[in-house]
Amino acid sequence: MTSDAIEHASAHKPTRNIFKRPLVAAFVLSFWSLCGLLPVSWASAFGGFTMNIVGRFISRRHKVLANLEIAFPELSLRQLNQLACDIHRNIGRTWAEMPHLAEICRPGSPWIDLRGSEHFEREIAAGRPVVFISAHVGNWEITAGIVAHRGIPLTVVYTPNPNPVIRRRLHRYRERLRCRLTPKHSAARPLAKALSLRETVGLVVDPRARDGVLIPFFGHPTTMTTSPARLALKFGASIVPTQCQRLDGARFRITFHEAFRPEDVPPGIDPEIALTARITGHIEDWIRSQPADWYCMRRHWPRTINGSREATASQCGDAQETRQLIS
Questions:
Q1: What's the confidence (pLDDT) of residue 324?
Q2: Taking the model in full, what pTM does it have?
Q3: Domain boundaries, the chain
Q4: Which of 64, 198, 268, 297 is the most exposed place for a label (fewest CB within 10 A)?
Q5: Across the chain, how many H-helices and E-strands are there?
Q6: How confident is the model at residue 233 (pLDDT cuts 50, 70, 90)?
């Protein structure tokens, strides 16, 4: 359940930024080294303060505001700008907490309020493989550590950072989560192996996947990956939505929601779309409940969608109806 969020924020086009990459790496590594010397709460606060300032000037801020305008049209411009600042603050805290992942995730950690673990423990006890799905909300990195630190074999997918210096440091931090890390471009075989052994895997799901199906997200169609659904269907796995909420400072509530399975889909409904719609519904609910936790620094809805508006609305409506049937 690790993510490529830092990768998105620090990735640059090589032809334009051949000189910037070493500077970015030096800044990021110095930032992490300083945060590693501080207590968890201090590091988190420092990261939030820093990103709250920097976030006002970064180029991706307009994408944050564009996403928020679509998701929350009822908010005024002033409210949207305040929410954007809160989102940047959460991102800064998340980056600053990277050196402290092991301490935050350990069993009995004072930083974690754990709820709903019986939902995945029941599936594992029944001998079923489990697909944990999470989203870029709260501190999405720690959701994997909560499972793996309890001795449960977990394979998670991540997107390698294009900057090799940052990539190596990130990998070192993520190894402390105690899960198997598999890069996105070669994840198919490790995921299949884990599920065939009736183990668990973790995926962070984002709107506007390159390959996916049209699903309503905040009332507007976007492409959502069907990978979790396809894995569940192929290996008879249970899907466990895993939510991370930032409570205050570096304290979190991790909630494992009730599992759902391919056989829960009523006859006559495309199970791949049905499961994907239900996953998307969970993600939307999480964001609505605490929008300041949402990492949305890239566009989550396409500017244009292939096909007529009528066809798009029809597909979106079908998926919405399917979601209601299986919820």
A1: 54
A2: 0.87
A3: 5-326
A4: 268
A5: 13, 9
A6: very high
